[in-house]
């Protein structure tokens, strides 16, 4: 069973969960979610003898913070140090992946491996198809009108269903979880003093740690193109395209994500001498 923890960092109280013992795997959530998006993955890696840690960044979930100068990288270091972790495997989705890359560039000696899902990259370019631009316009309209309920529904279409998919493609408890996680984020007080890291886009080739890259084929076209670019630029990266999945596969297809994640962790531990499973793009 996951054990909750809280950590005071400056004017923030970071809320997290930890489960298991062994080499640490640190989970970093997407910008439309919180630590709950990783529950299935945390349980899976803990059962295989790893320690799983996830926390809500400032502006998300149960974490609270005053509006003060802060750095997500510094907050991550504080979480690691509080758990006596020198190096870990980092699993990040979207903005969580971007944080993992920023951390890897700043502290390469603390990276055992990376799993990046539909990842952000600080300074990366963005393009959109006509269909994607239309849903982005709907998002901007809801934001400008201050209609957070509508904004939440539009973002569920964008990120859970996929911008080119039918709205409501993913339903049931998974959709309810997404809407609740994103609702909390949308209603958090604004944080205006984040110290943003320098662009990482032109430095991704410096990330030499073993990395597993995943992206759903229903995700934004720019993120699929970014996935392809990273698979070419990162020297020890293995790429997997997930068929019929959008931006949050950890809750949409936890079985698939867990399988790929555990294979990767097994390879890192040296239990798999053959990396061919990761050399070809996987589809499921």
CATH architecture of the largest domain: 3-Layer(aba) Sandwich
Distance between the termini: 30 Å
Largest sheet, if any? Answer: 9 strands, mixed
Number of β-strand runs: 9
* Annotated CATH topology of the largest domain: Rossmann fold
User: What is the C-level CATH assignment of the largest domain?
Assistant: Alpha Beta
Q: Which structural class matches the secondary elements?
A: alpha/beta
- Runs in which pLDDT lies below 50 for 5 or more consecutive residues are 271-284
Shape: globular
Mean pLDDT: 95
How many helical stretches?
Answer: 10
User: Rg to the nearest angstrom?
Assistant: 18 Å
SSE string: EEEHEEHEHEHHHEHEHHH
Beta strand %: 15-25%
Q: Any idea what the CATH superfamily of the largest domain is called?
A: Alpha/Beta hydrolase fold, catalytic domain
Total number of domains: 2
Explain the overall architecture.
- With 284 residues, the protein is α/β, with parallel strands linked by helices.
- It has two domains: 3-124 and 191-279, Rossmann fold; 130-186, no CATH class.
- Helices cover 40% and strands 18% of the residues.
- It is built from ten helices and nine strands.
- It has helices spanning 39-47, 72-82, 95-106, 130-145, 148-161, 172-186, 221-233, 249-252, 254-268, 276-279, and strands at 3-9, 12-19, 24-28, 51-55, 64-65, 88-93, 111-117, 211-216, 237-242.
- Strands 1, 2, 3, 4, 5, 6, 7, 8 and 9 form a nine-stranded mixed beta sheet that branches.
- The two termini are 30 Å apart.
- Residues 271-284 have low confidence and may be disordered.
